[in-house]
């Protein structure tokens, strides 16, 4: 390597998806619109659940937490991209990049854990309806939210501590709107073997644990539904799970398609696909849960009438 390549990078360049100015304007407008919808939609879900005593149940407690995480998840990436566009800049400092990746790890994994907790809640509601209140007591619900926060913070800390040990040379251009860990890892001129192994061992465990919990929970739910004598009972059970399953498929489908392969084969197509679970999924969640949920729509109608 020549002397220029040995210069330690103090910032990264977020190139986005297009170098065409007209296309960048379209992308800017698209992301601004999606971000505004994400914030307003999720805040509305939190407001409705907070204001209606009938929604102070475990299911909606977890949904309010999911909406809070989705707001934070989008806020980690989109505002920086929007500000850079308005300032005509593409740079992000080394420390900002590390902080962005840290919170991406936290909120991305929190989404997965909360989806698994919500699947367990649906399992208890459908398979053990008579014991639901006893099993899903408030102390357990709080524990099921606090524990993932602890796990995801430790997980993020581990990966960032490994990341800051690397040396980043003069090649500092990231073909994305945010510091994607895979793309940043490819820019290092140090040996990344430990980082890659950790991502595919510890990282895989953190990712797959909630996914397996969701699959097991819905396995039990499916077997219970098959034993229900009435079609009305089956429809009611499916209606309580439909929204959650839609979000799970959208979230995990995007992640499995993007990150479940070696970082060396990561491409621009993967970078575009990663926008689905970092931007599109947080935006879609309020619509998925509200449009198919009578309780949410009823509570929202009451708030509008009162105002």
UniProtKB/TrEMBL annotation:
CC per GO annotation: plasma membrane
Keyword Nucleus: no
Membrane topology, record value: Multi-pass membrane protein
Subcellular location: Cell membrane
Domain of life: Eukaryota
PANTHER family per UniProt: OLFACTORY RECEPTOR
Family of the protein in this entry: Belongs to the G-protein coupled receptor 1 family.
Protein name: Olfactory receptor
């Amino acid at each position: 390597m020549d002397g220029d390549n040995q210069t330690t990078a103090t910032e990264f360049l977020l190139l986005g998806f297009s170098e065409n100015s007209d296309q960048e304007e379209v992308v800017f407008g698209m992301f601004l619109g999606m971000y505004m919808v994400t914030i307003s939609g999720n805040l509305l879900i939190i407001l409705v659940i907070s204001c209606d005593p009938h929604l102070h149940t475990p299911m909606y407690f977890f949904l309010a937490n999911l909406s809070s995480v989705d707001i934070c998840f989008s806020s980690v990436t989109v505002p920086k991209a929007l500000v850079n566009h308005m300032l005509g800049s593409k740079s992000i400092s080394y420390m900002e990049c590390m902080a962005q990746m840290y919170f991406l790890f936290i909120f991305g994994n929190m989404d997965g854990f909360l989806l698994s907790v919500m699947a367990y809640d649906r399992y208890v509601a459908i398979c053990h309806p008579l014991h639901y209140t006893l099993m899903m007591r408030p102390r357990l619900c709080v524990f099921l939210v606090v524990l993932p926060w602890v796990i995801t913070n430790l997980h993020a800390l581990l990966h960032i501590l490994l990341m800051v040990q690397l040396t980043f040379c003069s090649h500092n251009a990231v073909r994305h709107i945010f510091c994607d860990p895979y793309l940043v890892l490819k820019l290092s001129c140090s040996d990344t073997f430990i980082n890659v192994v950790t991502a595919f061992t510890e990282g895989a465990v953190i990712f797959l644990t909630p996914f397996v919990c969701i699959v097991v929970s819905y396995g039990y739910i499916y077997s219970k539904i098959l034993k229900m004598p009435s079609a009305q009972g089956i429809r009611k059970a499916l209606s309580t799970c439909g929204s959650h399953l839609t979000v799970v498929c959208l979230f995990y489908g995007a992640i499995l398609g993007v990150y479940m392969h070696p970082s060396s084969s990561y491409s621009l197509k993967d970078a575009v696909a990663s926008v689905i679970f970092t931007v599109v999924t947080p935006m879609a969640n309020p619509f998925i849960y509200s449009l198919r949920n009578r309780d949410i729509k009823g509570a929202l109608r009451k708030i509008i009438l009162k105002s």
